[in-house]
Amino acid sequence: MRISGIEIPDHERAQVGLTRFYGIGPVNVIQLAKKAKIDLNTRIKDLSRDDVGNLMKALESFTVEGDLKKEVRESIDRLSAIKCYRGIRHIVSLPARGQRTKSNARTRKGKKKTVGSLTKEAWAKIETQQKAATVGSNK
Description:
about 140 residues; mainly alpha; Helicase, Ruva Protein, domain 3
């Protein structure tokens, strides 16, 4: 079934299937079901047209998908623009909520980069680039 541009598998229960929407989690699903007056244990394929219509109306009261992503992006841009602590952490791609960074934070920091001493391969690569640059400038 397709609701508001999101594909929901027919075999899933409504409680699980509705979490496919960005911004709708387990807690919001319960509120959404109460507003739409549907049972959370029914399968998506068993929902009637009226239930789907009620569900779409109830979804309008929640900030989901593109609007929510835009709101989050604007918040981060605002923090970055005023150069507050959290904004600076976002700019340099570090955790913004006080997590340790000495040994963890690989998800946020990305692949490990060597700082300071270089490996033999890295030195060889730098030397060949420098040689190529000097040869190119001598011509």
